[in-house]
């Protein structure tokens, strides 16, 4: 029996063996002592990638499971920090990261991130700046926003747009902060 539904044979999905192997590794890591060196972290889960194969696992189902797994690992990491009296340090790290995010987002519109050359596609600057405005309201005004909104945001492509790696790194940091203060 499959762990996840399969994509149609004609469409690509995540490599079944890779996903199943990762889930075994994740289970072992979750069941082990969180202070063990080299233990899988919420960040590791967020950056996990699988090869695509025809008839593989449904990407939407696996992605949803990875998000739940990331949430569980983040909660476990937060609880472990609280257990050793690092709660204030944990929150201070989150505050510091949130301030670094705000510092980046307070840059002038159109100049918040490096731009790629006019011959290269990057993220649409208007789309990113619009979402950046929502993030500023979340951090400064406490406007509601879910971690799923950050995880699933998409931006159109644009020649000369923002460098994708920089925007993605900032979104990862936002996710870290949101999971830390949950």
Automatic annotation (TrEMBL):
Gene3D superfamilies from the UniProt entry: 6.10.250.660
Xref: InterPro entries: CHP03543, DivIVA_domain
Family annotation (NCBIfam families): DivI1A_domain, divI1A_rptt_fam
Protein name: DivIVA domain-containing protein
């Amino acid at each position: 029996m499959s762990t996840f539904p399969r994509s149609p044979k004609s469409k690509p999905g995540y490599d079944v063996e890779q996903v199943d192997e990762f889930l075994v590794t994740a289970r072992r890591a979750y069941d082990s002592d969180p202070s063990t060196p080299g233990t899988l972290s919420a960040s590791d889960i967020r950056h996990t990638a699988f090869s695509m194969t025809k008839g593989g696992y449904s990407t939407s189902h696996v992605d949803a499971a990875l998000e739940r797994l990331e949430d569980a690992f983040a909660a476990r990491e937060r609880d472990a920090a609280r257990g050793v009296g690092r709660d204030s340090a944990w929150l201070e790290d989150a505050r510091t990261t949130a301030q670094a995010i705000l510092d980046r987002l307070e840059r002038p519109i159109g100049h918040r991130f490096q731009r790629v050359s006019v011959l290269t596609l990057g993220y649409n600057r208007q789309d990113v700046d619009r979402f950046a405005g929502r993030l500023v309201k979340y951090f400064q005004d406490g406007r509601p926003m879910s971690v799923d909104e950050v995880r699933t945001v998409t931006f159109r492509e644009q020649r000369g747009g923002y460098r994708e790696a920089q925007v993605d790194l900032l979104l990862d940091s936002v996710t870290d902060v949101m999971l830390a203060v949950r």
